[in-house]
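Example 9 (inverse folding). The structure is encoded as follows.
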């Protein structure tokens, strides 16, 4: 029995990073452009799928990096930092896309955050007239009004809005829409609700009306609007998400000592790991497994928690113990999560979000759609952007269009000759962080972007998983069904055969050979030397049979 999978290297496949990106950004292609120092081209490739290229370059949760195949070699690529390099080092703005002929259909979008503006972009790209209504003085939702300047500078966010405007999206600020149906009566053919999750959740404990209690989101908005809230010298922040982390770091910049209280352990914190690390570096103290139970003037009483069985979120449920302690505080900041305001006449879910039809994106009112945090609750920028794109497709269908809003570029293999990656041992390039003592003195960016040469080197680590092909072969008679290959393979290439080999074992079979990224984990882990992996080359250079790495 010889179980060989021989793929067809004429085709391009979806790399793990692109598959993991909710917006489907063509990561390997823009990385190849970067590798050759073509920063403007890289930026325009990012923008093919992502109108918020700049916002995501600074503040994305980068799920692509968790999927990157290079992590099995010597560390995932710094994909977000490379996107930032494209944004910062592009010498000109990419040429705006051609605006297609108008369809005569009009769409109103309520809310100008990442979900609403992403939908606006794609609907405009389909030829519909789009008007975005924003109740604040400037567009951007959380991006502009909550994320601190040291994480997402406004000058870069402006680039995203210039880009989105270039396709003809009309923006009307300082307009509040309370009853979305009025927009239908005004002649819009469809309405999209993308107002976000701005309603801060309450602790519901005694003393919450004390004057020293402050809402974390309100604090961040005040800071972004140029105010300097007075928080005193000792701040306690309640919460473990990114808003809590932002609030804590902002208070350090306001000169306060900060203690953050979170009811689970650090491992369960929903905030990004790098945000937690940055907060700790900046001197934020963290009290884990604790929750507030009573607020008194200048003091908060807390109870120690222990972790029980997993709850609905899949995380261990915090259970109060009998141990209590108190923290002195001049300001108590509550940042335990956000909810959604469901507009009048629209049906909500039991989670307090807007109910939609999963297939069509429609709310309980025909021709009114919803997306983003209003539907899924507080989420990341990239999830909101992806939601906007999906809902734009649904609205396009509703308006008589095809609902097809993009496809993988068939000619997207620029520079295949540069696809040969740097060999193992080239560790991920790290961004330089300013010293914590300096950065809490101002609102400037914490991390310095990559220089052109560093960005090109980091891009050179990319394995070009989209255009490199491998032949995976299992010598079934040698296999003793230990299952190590199935466990080790990040691409889930192997399955277990239904048949038995001569030794009476059910050997490994190659089920999804096209997904092999050539990490060689299976080859090294197989105790029976039954697996062989051979590189077949890239789509363009067709060096079929180039056996570079397999120790056969
Ligand atoms: S190595 Fe490159 S193509 Fe492969 S997953 Fe990582 S970034 Fe994507
Ligand atoms: S088949 Fe082997 S070389 Fe290919 S991805 Fe899986 S473990 Fe890595």
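The amino acid assigned to each position is listed next.
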């Amino acid at each position: 029995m010889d179980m060989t999978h021989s793929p067809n290297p004429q085709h391009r496949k979806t790399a793990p990073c692109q598959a993991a990106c909710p917006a489907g950004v063509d990561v390997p292609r823009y990385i190849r452009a970067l590798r050759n120092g073509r920063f403007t081209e890289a930026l325009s490739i990012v923008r093919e799928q992502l109108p918020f290229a700049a916002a995501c370059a600074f503040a994305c949760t980068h799920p692509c990096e968790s999927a990157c195949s290079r992590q099995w070699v010597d560390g995932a690529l710094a994909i977000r930092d490379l996107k930032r390099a494209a944004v910062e080092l592009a010498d000109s703005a990419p040429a705006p896309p051609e605006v297609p002929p108008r369809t005569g259909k009009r769409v109103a979008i309520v809310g100008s955050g990442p979900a609403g503006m992403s939908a606006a972009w794609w609907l405009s790209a389909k030829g519909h007239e789009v008007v975005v209504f924003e109740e604040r003085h400037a567009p951007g939702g959380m991006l502009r009004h909550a994320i601190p300047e040291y994480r997402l500078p406004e000058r870069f966010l402006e680039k995203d809005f210039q880009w989105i405007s270039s396709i003809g999206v009309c923006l009307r600020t300082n307009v509040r829409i309370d009853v979305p149906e009025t927009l239908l009566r005004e002649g819009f053919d469809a309405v999209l609700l993308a107002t976000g999750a701005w309603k801060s959740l309450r602790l519901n404990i005694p003393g919450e009306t004390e004057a020293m209690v402050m809402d974390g989101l309100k604090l961040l908005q005040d800071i972004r609007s140029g105010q300097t809230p007075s928080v005193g010298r000792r701040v306690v922040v309640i919460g473990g998400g990114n808003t809590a982390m932002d609030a804590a770091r902002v208070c350090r910049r306001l000169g306060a000592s900060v203690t953050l209280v979170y009811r689970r352990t650090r491992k369960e914190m929903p905030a990004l790991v790098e945000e937690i690390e940055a907060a700790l570096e900046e001197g934020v103290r963290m009290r884990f497994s604790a929750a507030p139970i009573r607020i008194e003037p200048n003091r908060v009483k807390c109870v120690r928690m222990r972790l029980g069985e997993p709850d609905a979120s899949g995380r261990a449920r915090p259970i109060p113990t009998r141990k209590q302690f108190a923290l002195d505080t001049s300001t108590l900041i509550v940042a335990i999560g956000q909810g959604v305001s469901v507009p009048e006449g629209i049906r909500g879910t039991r989670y307090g979000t807007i109910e939609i039809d999963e297939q069509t994106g429609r709310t309980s009112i025909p021709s009114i759609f919803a997306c983003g945090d209003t539907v899924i609750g507080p989420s990341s920028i990239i999830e909101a952007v992806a939601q906007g794109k999906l809902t734009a497709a649904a609205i396009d269908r509703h308006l008589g269009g095809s609902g097809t809003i993009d496809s993988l570029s068939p000619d997207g293999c620029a520079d295949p000759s540069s696809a040969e990656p740097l060999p193992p041992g080239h560790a991920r390039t790290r961004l330089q962080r300013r010293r914590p003592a300096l950065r809490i003195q101002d609102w400037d960016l914490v991390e310095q972007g990559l220089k052109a040469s560093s960005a090109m080197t980091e891009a050179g680590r990319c394995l070009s998983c989209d255009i490199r092909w491998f032949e995976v072969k299992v010598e079934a008679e040698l296999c003793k069904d230990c299952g190590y290959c199935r466990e080790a393979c990040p691409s889930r290439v192997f399955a277990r055969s239904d048949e038995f080999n001569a030794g009476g074992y059910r050997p490994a079979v190659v089920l999804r050979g096209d997904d092999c990224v050539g990490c060689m984990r299976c080859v090294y882990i197989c105790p029976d030397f039954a697996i062989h992996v051979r590189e077949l080359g890239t789509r363009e250079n067709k060096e079929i049979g180039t056996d570079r790495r397999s120790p056969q």
